[in-house]
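Notes for week 9. Today we move from apo structures to complexes. The key idea is that a small molecule is not decoration. When we ask for a structure prediction with 2-acetamido-2-deoxy-beta-D-glucopyranose present, the ligand SMILES becomes part of the input, just like the chain. The input block below holds both the sequence and the ligand string. Read it once before you look at the output, and try to guess where the molecule might sit.
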Amino acid sequence: MAPLPNLLALPLLLLATFCHTPSMCHVSPAAARAQQDSTKTSTYRTYIVLVEPQPLSANEEACRQWHESFLPSLHIADSGEPRLLHSYSEVFSGFAARFTDDELSAVAKKPGFVRAFPSRTLQLTTTHTPEFLGLREGTGFWSNAGYGKGVIVGMLDTGIYAAHPSFDDHGIPPPPAKWKGSCGAVRCNNKLIGAKTVIGGDSGDPDGHGTHTSSTAAGNFVTGASYNGLAAGTASGIAPGAHIAMYKVCSPSGCEDADIVAGIDAAIKDGVDVLSISISANPGDHFDQDAVAVGAFTAVSKGIIVVSSAGNRGPFPQSVANDAPWLLTVAAGSVDRSFYAEVLLGNGRGIGGETLTQVGKPSSKPYPLFYPADRRFCENMDSAAIAGKVVVCVSLAAAFQDVNIRRIMASGAAGMVLFNTESRGYTVDLVDYNSSVIQVAAADGVVLTDYAMSAASSAIASFTYSNTLLGVRPAPAVASFSSRGPSHVSPGVLKPDILAPGLNILGAFPPSTDYGTGPFSIMSGTSTATPHVSGVAALIKSLHPDWSPAAIKSAILTTSDAVNRTGGPILNEKYGEAGAYDRGAGHVNPARAADPGLVYDLGITDYASFICSLLGQDGLKTIARDSSLTCAKLPKVKAAQLNYPTITVPQTRSPFTVKRTVTNVGPAASTYKAKVDAPRSLRVRVSPDTLVFTRTGEKKTFSVSVSCHGAARHRVVEGSLSWVSEEHVVRSPIVAAVAS
Ligand SMILES: *[C@@H]1O[C@H](CO)[C@@H](O)[C@H](O)[C@H]1NC(C)=O
Ligand SMILES: *[C@@H]1O[C@H](CO)[C@@H](O)[C@H](O)[C@H]1NC(C)=O
């Protein structure tokens, strides 16, 4: 899989109103190109500079001139490159430009200067999945929702391969009149309605990541799709009727803070409805130092729902990124599909594995099995020792092992079996080695190595291939790499929010990049889970254009599946029961999300009140562009009391009480009864325990008191509260956690 965008924290600050019209006053492609080549002029660095809003600069030109007035010169003397990279206006008042340290000191003395931060570079973090999510062409909810008709999904990513059939516009009407975006040099149509680069060059996709994520969110139907015959079928995004706008903010080498902010700035101005960000910040970044959190706050205040990846730093606790409560944070799970291959051992035992290189002719020829116990990672193997053998190794991340594996196969090995490390468990994250390399789970590695050691030189194995199997169980299981809660900076809001398919996902791909060739490719990561949920958000937005971002999030969370198709628990990568910090509220269920019955709504002042409690006025000033939001005028709202659709409380013996308010978005006359599921050690009281609604839009407030008793020896105890009517179940997980 291609490296995933991984966004660096953005320490920024700021404020207020000005430059009302455009969001990006100015971008210099030449300067942006220069910025990518940072080694050449290493004494110059890119800084994000925050400045006081200038009341006169109400238009693009005046805004740019105000920003230019801070520069020692418009061009760098030695190279002639422009200094100014971006002028921002939507997300905050400021710009990105290149200075030496000495020059920056001079800039800092100018009137109107507020603060400067170096912009950091971070590394970069479907045929069957609609069906797995219960969406079938021509039927039910999917077609009722017009497949996301009229909704604009903005993607922040590595660019897009516009000529891909996934971005054909058959059946798609023109974009709504509010759309202000454009496509530059690229061929645009009613599907791909925007393609902008903020990093210079064109909006093409030299990586493949952005093409893949875009097709998952809103790619059109493409018949006869497959990856070398695997995962064959009709490919489509989750919202195949929606429009796509690409904002290229990442190069294959990474994504810069300054560019991410510029991308969000442009998307807000152009008028997207959904923003899909498969780029993840560092876990533990405060929200006022995190470009996605800051940019998303302004986007959410304009009614844009922002969906972002939890990150690929699992399975370790507190690894979740993009954890601000105004983001919809997505974890990655498996689907019920396997690219199956079996390893048959000489002792008759068969081990089920997977490979992306399926051999056409079935061969059951046995080869000697060789496990170099002293070189478990297959490093520095002697080619004479491996020729004609099946070599068994521990699987590492492709970046560390790719070269070794290709070398071993090139020196005449008959095949390889790579088994997962303990921590990866059952998550088989496939890499195409274009040869007989089969990947298996950690538990199977034990079987394999036990046999290899005991049978020694008489150990043999053969491979058989089954192409694509569907209906594989258990599914879904949380992928090992998917980042886990609790949030480092705000543990009182459950993160991640939701689980979606993110393991071995088929998506559109450019014809040729360093990471593979199209037209389709198979990738894994929370990057691939995120656009599934962006697509679901687009479907809901199409049916309910007036719903707030928080209402759409609530709908997705409270209707998610807590169990798998056959009623068993959703599992983690070790096939133990997944917890809320692994999977959030549950596995996304699009059809039910469109009709949640009740929603837990939140507005921008609620988030602002939460920021006041967490970070104070300085933090709020940095994050909120709207200067009318000030902590002096707002209550301080602690995380537990935010009207979030999940409930997180500290573990206490005396009852800890939270209040929640639900809004009726279902039938006017409905009665809901509270139903609590909790282990005996968790006592939950809901008051009142019946909610009677007589009209749509009506709000009802209730309280939930939680106390922990007896043998609550676990750091986290989980239960749930469901509001149940004749037609709806509105479920919120309850998480009682030991304060850390
Ligand atoms: C994969 O291997 C086959 C031969 O086994 C070769 O013809 C083909 O070009 C290879 N594909 C890639 C992408 O390397
Ligand atoms: C559901 O979970 C149970 C328990 O883990 C498992 O036995 C079953 O196979 C799963 N069903 C599906 C459809 O994955």
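DSSP finds 16 helices and 35 strands in the chain.
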